[in-house]
Amino acid sequence: MSKKLVFVINSGSSSLKFSLIDSKSYKRFLTGIVECLYLINTNISWKTKNISIKNFFLKSYSTHENALEFIINNIIKKKIDIFNDIISVGHRVVHGGKKIKSSVIINESIMDIIKKASCFAPLHNSVNLLGIKLLIKILPFLRKKNVAVFDTSFYQRLPEKAYLYGIPYIFYKKYGIRRYGAHGISHSYIMKKTAEIICKDIMSINIISCHLGNGASVSVIKNGICIDTSMGLTPLEGLVMGTRSGDIDPSFIFYLYENMNMEIKEIKNLLTKKSGILGLSEETSDFRFSEKKYFSNKKAKRAVDIFSYKLVKYISSYFFLIAKEIDALVFTGGIGQNSVLVRKLTVSQLSSLGFELSEKFNNENGFKNNFCISSKKSIPILVVSTDEEIEIAKETIRLIN
Ligand code: ADP
Fold first, then answer.
1. CA of 214 to the centre of ligand 1 (A)
2. Per-residue pLDDT tens over the stretch 8-34
3. Residue 216 pLDDT greater than 80, yes or no
4. Would residue 44 count as lying in a domain?
5. Does 107 have pLDDT greater than 90?
């Protein structure tokens, strides 16, 4: 019997996740990840439903395009039976700009909007668009069945005080300059999954959700609505990230321009691709390196300490927006789900707010997808595996039906 599968593509800044998901049961038929894009050790791993796992090193410094071509030509197309069962394609798109407020079926004008919004998500929208164009070319019979699911949709109900900057209002009114947030698909999934885990209605859930990956952000959710988030006009604002600086004094830009004769392009490159963990560790953006070397290498320690300190500052300021109503502090993303050290460093600085780790539970990494890491007397602290692909698949099916 033929299956009905949704092909989901989720391009992060350093990774590309892909899945074939059954449109009825939402079980994964095939799932995989390309990691360390633009680094020396780009690799791909994937597994099928019967759990045969395959790993493969791609050429060093592979791009999103290289990765997508490999996935289509060497995995998907080789399984002709699967290829014919794909009924729709769901794409993660980071930024919908001013116009797009929810998921949409892709057509030429939507592609145009995504392209225009690239200025607000330079590391992401262009690769998201590349995926869309490639898939339309490869699967022309599904041309009208490609759906874009936007990270920015989750932030449509931010209060004005959270989304406006202290700049002349005309910039918002005329040019749409505001805080849009990012990682919304992940934070939305985390909110729903946490509600399920703690048996609470989504409409009354209050959490602080920390998505810590190569890109990193914190969102605070009150009664099922996101009321503030650390990323802003672009995914550059907020926490220290893999290669992104996060918050800085804008005067640094003037300094580079006026005193160091740097071009705007170079400054952009510096803040988006050479800063963050890479810039502080002076080694790599791969967090595993800094974590491993934390006790033996001063630069690695510095990077991890600053990453955690910044996170503490966001969590504590968001704590006061929901205070005693808080149901849980949640960690997710490649670092949030795996870094025992970051969770320990972060939570140890939040003890005065009522957060305390159970060392034993925090160390129980990798045994379960979702687990509690707090002590008995603490506000609940959870590690929840994010699943942006399921969120995208559900939205895709909702739209094409
Ligand atoms: P993105 O989707 O933004 O590309 P991910 O959520 O996949 O990123 O997270 C990638 C980050 O997670 C990388 O910095 C990687 O080093 C880090 N990471 C992955 N596994 C671990 C681990 N076991 N310990 C610490 N960091 C990890």
1. 6
2. 999 877 789 999 999 999 999 889 999
3. yes
4. yes
5. yes
Query: Are 114 and 231 contained in the same domain?
Result: no
d(CA 185, CA 94): 9
Residue 173 has pLDDT above 80, yes or no: yes
Three-state DSSP at 172 gives helix
Q: Which CATH number covers residue 271?
A: 3.30.420.40
Kindly tell me if the per-residue pLDDT of 2 is higher than 90.
Answer: no
Query: For ligand 1, is residue 184 a contact (CB within 6 Å)?
Result: no
What is the number of structural domains in the chain?
Answer: 2
- 174 falls within a domain: no
Considering the domain architecture, whether residues 139 and 210 belong to the same structural domain is answered as no
Mean pLDDT of the chain: 93
User: Token pair of 314, please?
Assistant: 């966001």
User: Does residue 401 fall inside a structural domain?
Assistant: no
Tell me the C-alpha distance between 67 and 34, whole Å: 7
Q: DSSP for 248-290?
A: --THHHHHHHHHS---HHHHHHHHHHSSHHHHHHTS-S-HHHH
Bridge-based pairing state of the strands 146-150 and 86-93? parallel
Q: Is 234 left (phi over 0), alpha (psi -120 to 50) or beta?
A: beta
Q: Which atom of ligand 1 is nearest to the CA of 242?
A: 14
Task: Find the mean pLDDT for residues 334-360.
Answer: 97
pLDDT of residue 150: 97
Kindly state if the Cβ of 284 falls inside 6 Å of ligand 1.
Answer: no
Pocket lining: 213 vs ligand 1, CB cutoff 6 Å: yes
Banded model confidence at residue 292, pLDDT cuts 50, 70, 90: very high
- If you measure from the C-alpha of residue 285 to the centroid of ligand 1, how many angstroms do you get, rounded to a whole number? 10
Is the residue at 167 inside a domain? no
Catalytic positions are 151
- Measure 288 CA to ligand 1 centroid, in angstroms: 7
- Domain range spanning residue 278? 200-384
**91/4 Cα distance (integer angstroms):** 17
- Residues 227 and 313 occupy one common structural domain: yes
pTM of the model: 0.91
Neighbouring C-alpha atoms within 13 Å toward the C-beta of 322: 26
Q: What pLDDT does residue 1 have?
A: 60
Check if 287 has its Cβ closer than 6 Å to any atom of ligand 1: yes
